[in-house]
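[09:14] KT: can someone run the structure on this one? pasting the chain below
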Amino acid sequence: MWRFLFIAFLIAHGGVHVAIWATPRPKGEKAPFDPSHSWLFGSQRSLALVLALAAAALLVAAGLGLWAQAEWWRTVAVIGLITSFGLMVLYFHPWFLFIQAVNAALIVGLLWLDWPSKSMVGA
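[09:31] RB: done, structure tokens below
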């Protein structure tokens, strides 16, 4: 059960990146914030898109790797989470604070706490 939930979370987390940064903004509609506007780089949609797609691909690959019980899934998940964390730092909005905390907790858990354990997820 935990393994399935973690696989679903990794894949869904990647999908959210695609949904936020890869979908075009509707013309004429005012959005609460512009996800392609960086506090550091200004309006850089292409950079945001590349980082978001990279994070999404890595997170989905990690989920599929965990499903296949591959040994490398943990490393790929950490790289994807770090990419996601960096993306949300560069394109910061207060709405991202919760997921930033989740990313940081998962990075710490995967790297230093060996969570989830191999007995918990089977890989």
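[09:33] KT: thanks! The two ends are 14 Å apart (CA to CA).
[09:34] RB: yep, looked fine to me
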